[in-house]
């Protein structure tokens, strides 16, 4: 049985003053089940869900050819249900946004490097991005942290080899730098990884009872992503949603008040009652109290009071029966957003100005990238220039005719699953581009660096509906598009990553045996997850060497 829980951040809000937001952990291609769970919750509670946020591992597989860019062993590759929404057979009943994880069809997502529609009503946040929905400001970071790739450019080009198949979804310092330049308050931050050390701001002991093999990483402060940690204490978003570790976990980070002259001192764990949630069990609803510690001082954007400087963190499980994989939050609708307007996706002016001013940092070279030490200064004039560029763009959607509205310009670029030749990679598995990226870069007057221009024999297909846009004649052959040169240098891969196909997949060692310390895989780098053959669960995967304790 799939179920969801509902929490609210205010007492008895009126229906016109709130946005009901469903947050889901790891999707793993189970869109049908997720949308069904939302429909059941809407029926049970009488609410309308305005937005679905998926925290990674979306697996936007358009067809079986996309398996070539999916980093899981062949025996665990399943087509899932996303292709139905991609082809137009089904339409997402709830506006949906997501970030990428470490189990994605990386090729189509790389073609949407700056974000875009992967299907009607389903929006990808890009490698990093900030958008607005219904007046809420939402930021996102895709991928997971891997130290030896963190400072490299986005050198990966499909068809991926065994190394780049994984490094393509590793977080890079340039995207983190850009997100750290966001100064205006952010309501929601989405990532796949947890910020490093976030477990210290929640019920750590409960987490360790649920996931005993986290203990060494917790004790060494290596659980989670240091890149996400930097964003947390610089951006200070009001809420942070994540997944990846397949466990429900809540925490609250109280940031140091602005203007405080004293240095923060450890206070131990204190009870926090401002934010309470419930989760479904087979017997009853249990109310959960969250625990928090005061954080260290940090700089960056932030509100003027301690309450407003509080980051509420929530991580959820994967989509499986009797697992805490979804929670519905009732969040206040900003007063500045028209109460009678249907919530819509809009571009964020500050973010687009940051992208423009840092465009020179985008690299497709496998070389160390250094980010500036100085902050990017975004002025009102910078944002006005971006607004003018959007206003001059002829494509404007939405009932308010706002130039900031993200255009509904999705188009099918590869044959959907079940269609003729859908099992064959287009252009030999190399990128063919996406017209959404072309349009986005044209508006901002930026060049393709990580992406390539879209090529089609039928330019009209870009503006057709999904069902009409799909036509075998629209797809280029291997000889009609220039080959993209693949970087000759092969990325170094350690033995942990190469051990993804075979080996033990036990969560814990058998009785009487223990894991060697050096064989405990780090959570922020746990790209070797596989589906457990017995229960469809996702387990840490690596060649583990057990030694007897007897």
Please tell me the overall pLDDT.
77
First-last Cα distance: 42 Å
Strand content: 15-25%
Helical run tally? 13
Total discrete domains: 2
- Widest β-sheet, arrangement of strands: 12-13-11-14-10-9-8-7-16
Radius of gyration computed on alpha carbons: 23 Å
Give the helix proportion (percent range): 10-25%
- Main β-sheet: number of strands, strand sense, barrel status? 9 strands, mixed
User: How would you name the oligomeric state of the polypeptide chains in this document?
Assistant: single chain
The total of beta strands comes to 20
Assign the structural class, choosing from mainly alpha, mainly beta, alpha/beta, alpha+beta, or little secondary structure: alpha/beta
Low-pLDDT stretches: 260-307, 457-550
- What is the overall shape? globular
């Amino acid at each position: 049985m799939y179920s969801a829980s509902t929490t609210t951040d205010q007492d008895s809000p009126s229906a016109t003053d709130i946005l009901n937001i469903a947050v889901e952990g790891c999707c793993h291609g189970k869109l049908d089940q997720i949308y069904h769970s939302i429909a059941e919750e809407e029926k049970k509670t009488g609410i309308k869900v305005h937005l679905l946020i998926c925290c990674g591992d979306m697996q936007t597989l358009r067809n079986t050819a996309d398996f070539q860019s999916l980093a899981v062993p062949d025996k665990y590759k399943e087509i899932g249900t996303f292709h139905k929404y991609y082809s137009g057979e089904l339409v997402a009943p709830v506006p949906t946004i997501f970030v990428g994880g470490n189990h994605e069809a990386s090729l189509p997502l790389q073609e949407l490097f700056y974000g875009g529609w992967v299907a009607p009503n389903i929006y990808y946040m890009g490698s990093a991005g900030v958008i607005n929905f219904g007046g809420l400001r939402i930021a996102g970071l895709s991928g997971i942290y891997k130290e030896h790739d963190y400072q490299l450019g986005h050198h990966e080009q499909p068809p991926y080899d065994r190394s780049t198949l994984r490094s393509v979804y590793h977080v890079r310092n340039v995207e983190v730098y850009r997100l750290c330049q966001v100064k205006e308050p952010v309501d929601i931050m989405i990532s796949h990884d947890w910020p490093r050390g976030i477990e210290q701001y929640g019920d750590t002991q409960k987490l360790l009872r649920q996931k005993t093999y986290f203990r060494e990483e917790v004790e060494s402060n290596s659980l989670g992503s240091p890149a996400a940690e930097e964003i947390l204490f610089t951006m200070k978003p009001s809420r942070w949603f994540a997944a990846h570790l397949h466990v429900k976990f809540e925490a609250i980070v109280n940031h140091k008040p602005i203007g405080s002259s004293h240095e923060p001192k450890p206070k131990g764990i204190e009870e926090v009652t401002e934010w309470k949630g419930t989760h479904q069990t087979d017997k009853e609803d249990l109310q959960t109290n969250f625990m928090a510690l005061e954080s260290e001082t940090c700089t960056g954007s932030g509100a003027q009071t301690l309450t407003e400087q509080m980051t509420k963190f929530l991580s959820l499980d994967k989509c499986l029966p009797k697992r805490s994989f979804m929670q519905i939050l009732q969040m206040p609708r900003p007063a500045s957003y028209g109460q009678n307007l249907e919530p819509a996706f809009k571009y964020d002016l500050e973010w687009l100005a940051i992208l423009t001013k840092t465009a020179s940092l985008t690299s497709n070279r496998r070389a160390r990238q250094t980010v500036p030490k100085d902050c990017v200064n975004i002025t009102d004039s910078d944002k006005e220039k971006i607004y003018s560029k959007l206003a001059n763009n002829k494509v404007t959607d939405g009932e308010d005719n706002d130039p900031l509205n993200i255009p509904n310009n999705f188009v099918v670029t590869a044959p959907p699953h079940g269609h003729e030749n859908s099992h064959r990679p287009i252009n030999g598995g190399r990128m063919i581009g996406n017209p959404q990226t072309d349009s986005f870069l044209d508006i901002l007057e930026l060049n393709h660096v990580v992406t390539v221009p879209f090529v089609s024999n039928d330019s009209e297909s870009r503006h057709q509906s999904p069902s009409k846009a799909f036509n075998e004649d629209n797809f280029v052959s291997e000889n009609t598009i220039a080959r993209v040169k693949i970087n000759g240098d092969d990325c170094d891969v350690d033995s942990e990553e190469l051990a993804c196909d075979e080996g033990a997949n036990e969560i814990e060692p058998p009785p009487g045996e223990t894991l060697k310390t050096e064989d405990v895989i780090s959570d922020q780098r746990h790209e070797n997850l596989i589906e457990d053959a017995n229960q469809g669960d996702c387990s840490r995967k690596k060649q583990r060497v057990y030694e007897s304790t007897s």
